[in-house]
Write a structure and sequence with these properties.
Blueprint lengths: L3 E5 L3 H13 L3 E5 L2 H11 L3 E5 L7 H11 L6 E6 L3 H10 L4 E4 L4 H20 L3 E3 L3 E4 L4 E6 L2 E4 L4 H12 L4 E3 H9 L9 H13 L9 E4 L3 E4 L4
Parallel strand pairs: 1-2, 1-3, 3-4, 4-5
Antiparallel strand pairs: 6-7, 7-8, 8-9, 10-12, 11-12
Helix pairs in contact: 2-3, 4-8, 6-8
The chain binds calcium ion (CA).
Length: 235
């Protein structure tokens, strides 16, 4: 398993800080100062993880993210988005990009390392599994990493980020079960998750946008008040 991380950050000091931190933890780092170089390096080196700053000269992090998702094909990297914006704006970013996770600057070294480890561990975990979950309208093939939705008799492949995929697989593994946010965080990021549990809501909202006819009145992913979520898919 290659543990290469591409750091896309125009501020030299922050880039150096991240690089030193990750190299100390045993990761190999590549560095880009702008979006175009990031796209070139991504295609040359195919790193499994990209730490992507939102504010970049030229094409910004959001656009880089979109283009990488279009390029990726069989090799879909994990993308950890960095932003200096406030919480509210951050939620909007979380909803509209293909990023798997995000961190708000300034972040602690521990927080960054925990997120990087969680994302890379996820790719190892997926390789070890071989299972298909099915409900009336959905199927998730963990081995081939394909999620499909049945819609009026036709199956369409869902275009999901890594965390959305894991989230759907978790729901499909136990239809009807009520999940607390804590439990979902554990499933998605592992035990050493560092940060705000409400991040789950962002990923649920994104997944709803992709699978629900009307995301504000969800048919499949129901909110369990005071607890979290449950997935229902009855005929
Ligand atoms: Ca920047």
């Amino acid at each position: 398993m290659q543990q290469t991380v591409l750091i896309v950050e125009d501020e030299a000091e922050i880039a150096r800080f991240i690089q030193q931190l990750l190299e100390k933890e045993g990761f190999t780092c590549l560095h880009s100062r702008d979006g175009n170089d990031a796209l070139r390096q991504f295609q040359t080196h195919q790193p499994p993880l990209i730490i992507l700053d939102w504010m970049l000269p030229g094409i910004d992090g959001l656009e880089v993210c979109t283009r990488i998702r279009k390029l990726a094909g069989t090799h879909d990297p994990y993308i950890l988005m960095l932003t200096a914006k406030g919480e509210e704006f951050n939620r909007v970013i979380g909803l509209s990009t293909g990023a798997d996770d995000y961190l708000v600057k300034p972040f602690s070294p521990m927080e960054l390392v925990a997120r990087v480890r969680a994302l890379l561990r996820r790719s190892l975990r997926q390789e070890a599994k071989s299972q298909v979950y099915r409900t009336v309208h959905f199927s998730v093939d963990l081995d081939r990493h394909i999620a499909t939705q049945q819609d009026n008799g036709t199956a369409k492949d869902l275009d999901l980020t890594a965390i959305e995929f894991d989230l759907l697989a978790t729901f499909l593994s136990h239809p009807g079960r009520a999940w607390s946010r804590t439990h979902l965080v554990e499933k998605l990021w592992g035990n050493d998750f560092f940060g705000e549990e409400r991040v789950v809501d962002t990923h649920v909202a994104r997944l709803r946008k992709k699978i629900e006819l009307d995301p504000s009145h969800p048919q499949f992913i129901k909110t369990v008040v005071g607890m979290g979520y449950k997935f229902e898919d009855d005929a």
